Amino acid sequence: MDEMLDELREEARRQGWPFVRWITREHNYRARGVYDRHATRTDWLTYQLEP
């Protein structure tokens, strides 16, 4: 997963993207440990409204 995030960072640079965001489950501790090494966790929460 580290290599994937490194490649994603490089692609973002090539594309001129100011940032990349993603969503994960709160209890996805294993992935969040990796994400914490590569990215800054924001204080945003995600909500979904069903019609």
Topology:
Elements: H1 2-15, H2 29-38
In short:
By secondary structure, the chain is mostly helical. 47% of the residues lie in helices and 0% in strands.
Would you give an account of this structure?
The model has no long low-confidence stretch (mean pLDDT 94). The chain is 47% helix and 0% strand. The N and C termini lie far apart (35 Å). The protein has 51 residues and is mainly α. 0% of the residues are buried. The protein is built from 2 helices and no strands.
* Helical amount: 40-55%
Pattern of helices and strands = HH
Unreliably modeled segments: none
Secondary structure tally, helices: 2
Global shape: globular
Question: In what range is the share of β-strand residues?
Answer: under 5%
Please give a handful of descriptors for the protein shown.
globular, mainly alpha, 0% strand, single chain, 47% helix, 51 residues
